[in-house]
Specification:
Length: 249
């Protein structure tokens, strides 16, 4: 059964080949959805879109820039005629300790992870309100829930906790307009954001903290995004869904 037949989605930060956004785009496409892949580099976004099939488009969009988000939403509307789903996935980390964070670091991390989620949501909400339907799926992190993580840095934890607050506030305010807003909190998932930075000892330590005994796959997160974007979750809004192999048990 195809769960997103006839629907369209914007996925931000989805050009990275091993990333959560690309895996989500691929799964959405398999479920009949037309996907707009947005990322910093136009060519990378176009290549990623072509990789999942002809019906999809790739666009340059820096989510920290409100104008970029508004222009991308307009371009997607022109191409697809409607926007049903936005996956606010673009994110960056900085592996810093608390006393090493400068205001510049803080701004960079908060701007992509949190302001980017607000910017892209604001760019599509008027359209979703008009149609009385829409699904916002926001990528938070286990770092928001346990205040740490190896890669992110404290300002990343703060930004992702902000994403949870924004998700719930949008869920409350937009429910009467038929718009649902949910967050995913991935645990340790093998992607470029985590790759290449781990010694075997660090990896052993991480796996010891995961009851399921393995790192997550991008497809594990994509499956959750599909659930939250489809009618399977029709009565779910304001939720944070853990995809972490039991790390918080
Ligand atoms: P990734 O680095 O593979 O992909 C992130 C993408 O975001 C890249 O393609 C990058 O170009 C893009 N991006 C960065 N800044 C941008 C901007 N200003 N505008 C538009 N795009 C921008 O990372 P990933 O592991 O696929 O992570 C995806 C999301 O999941 C992120 O929000 C990340 O914080 C979150 N997350 C990842 C993990 C993990 O273990 N991989 C765990 C928890 C949360």
């Amino acid at each position: 059964m195809k769960l997103l037949e006839g629907q369209t989605a914007i996925i931000t930060g989805a050009a990275s080949a091993r990333g959560l956004g690309k895996a989500t785009a691929k799964l959405f496409a398999e479920h009949g959805c037309r996907v707009a892949i947005l990322d910093l580099n136009a060519e990378a976004a176009e290549d990623a879109a072509a990789d999942i099939g002809e019906a999809h488009i790739g666009l340059a969009c820096d989510v920290t820039r409100k104008d970029d988000c508004v222009a991308a939403a307009a371009a997607v509307l022109e191409a697809f005629g409607q926007i049903d789903i936005v996956v606010n996935n673009a994110g960056i980390t900085q592996p810093l300790k608390i006393m090493d964070i400068t205001h510049e670091n803080y701004d960079a991390v908060l701007d992509v992870n949190l302001l980017g989620t607000l910017n892209m949501s604001q760019a599509v909400i008027p359209h979703m309100r008009e149609r009385k339907t829409g699904k916002l799926v926001n990528m938070s992190s286990v770092s928001a829930q346990r205040g740490g993580g190896i890669f992110g840095g404290p300002h990343y934890s703060a930004a992702k906790a902000g994403v949870l607050g924004l998700t719930k506030a949008m869920a409350r305010e937009l429910a009467p307009d038929g718009i649902r807003s949910n967050a995913i909190c991935p645990g340790f998932i093998a992607t470029d954001i985590t790759g290449g930075k781990l010694t075997p000892d660090m990896m052993t330590g991480i796996l010891a903290g995961i009851p399921m005994g393995r790192a997550g796959e991008a497809s594990d997160v994509a499956g959750c995004a599909l659930f939250l974007a489809s009618d399977l979750s029709a009565y779910v809004t304001g939720s944070e869904v853990d995809v972490n192999g039991g790390s918080l048990i």
